[in-house]
Amino acid sequence: MVAEVSLAALHTEEVRRDPYPFYAELHRHGPVCRVAPGDRYGYVVHGYEASAAVLRDSATFRVMDSTLLGAKPTWEGNRAHAVFMNSVFFTNAPRHTRMRKMFNQAFTPRRINALEPAIDRMTADLLDRLAAQAAGGAKVDFMSEFAFPLPANVLGELLGVPEADRAWYRPRALALGAILELGGATADNVAAADTAAEEITAFFADLAAQRRQDPRDDMITALVQALESDGTPLSEEELLANLIVVFNAGFVTTTHLLGNGLTMLLERPDELARLRADLSLAPRYVEEILRYEVPTHFSVRWVAQDTEVAGVPIPGGCWVLVLLAAANRDPAQFDRPDVFDPDRTETATLSFGAGAHYCLGAALARLEGQRGLAMLLERFGDIRLAAPPGTPRQLMLRGHEQLWLTLA
Ligand code: HEM
């Protein structure tokens, strides 16, 4: 018998501050639960194996796309949705497969590996700036001075977005991302996201036009030139939509990996000291940070036909909420799941999803997390919180808005 639960708690202040006890409660009811009537979601999937099975079966469990939305979102009606629905995030096979293949071709391991020296150089520049700002014991905001600009600069370099435009981009990216939060598509948020979508689309249209005229060794050029096997390029709306979502997905997430990671280390002085003493442990620490406090707590899927997950029958025609952050704390998969333990041997998490929509930027995010945190610790022997870090409330893009530090 499958248990029935209410997800109302996920909208309360208490659970938003600390969702993990709620996730632990869900685990006590099994890996999949039916959601009490009246909710948008028919089922919640939170067990590790069950969540992985759902994400891997993209024929049965589909992402929201324009056919599921009922009507094709129009540029005039809802610009933000029109952008999302032309991107890899919100398309299913065969359209998704076609776009993803072209993206994989442009987002090659060669291009990611080649970024390592640039990541180190950009990190070193930001650390110089931090050192100057923190001189004499002044407080600095780690989020705006390091955790945001590092991934924005790396993505900017990869895609070819000029440095001068990156600060302009940040509030617009945040406005677009806000409607993806659980319950975040309020009228005000949608209006702000529509305006941001319009401005960002115009920005990338301009950049793409420049690269057609004057090709360079960057990803915008690679995508502008990428051709399908039948010789067709990505359509202009697909090209622009994907540039937008990659840029967005690529830095807000990594910003929080850096912010959450540093906070967790500062709250655990023994772990901080151990990592400081041996920076070659950075990959292990980053994996455990991603398991323990992942910035993306959930994914959503539509059930295309009657099916079964972990022995629970799920009827076609409903939405399921896949709680990735809960799966990362599943006691059936991880020994003492609520303990931060970089030495754990079971390290495969669902932080980057699984299956067809597996994160395009996982390798890049890991590299930035490892280099960013290691170089920060190398540079500053004394890092302290200058104010309590505040408690995140988001489930999507969970992290700190500000993180005030003193550095020496
Ligand atoms: C800590 C950092 C990151 C986390 C936690 C993260 C998490 C995720 C997750 C969970 C998904 C799957 C969503 C789903 O199945 O519904 C995803 C997809 C995606 N991510 Fe990431 N991501 C991170 C960094 C990045 C970076 C750096 C980039 C780009 C450079 C990126 C680009 C994408 C794209 C384009 C997709 C959609 C892929 C598709 O639908 O085919 N992400 N990410």
Automatic annotation (TrEMBL):
Q: Name one Pfam family in it.
A: p450
Q: Which domain of life is it from?
A: Bacteria
Q: Which UniProt keywords apply?
A: Heme, Iron, Metal-binding, Monooxygenase, Oxidoreductase
Q: Gene3D superfamilies recorded for this chain?
A: Cytochrome P450
Q: Name one GO molecular function term.
A: iron ion binding
Q: In its UniProt record, which GO terms are filed under biological process?
A: antibiotic biosynthetic process; cholesterol catabolic process
- What family name appears in the similarity comment? Belongs to the cytochrome P450 family.
- The name this protein carries in UniProt is Cytochrome P450
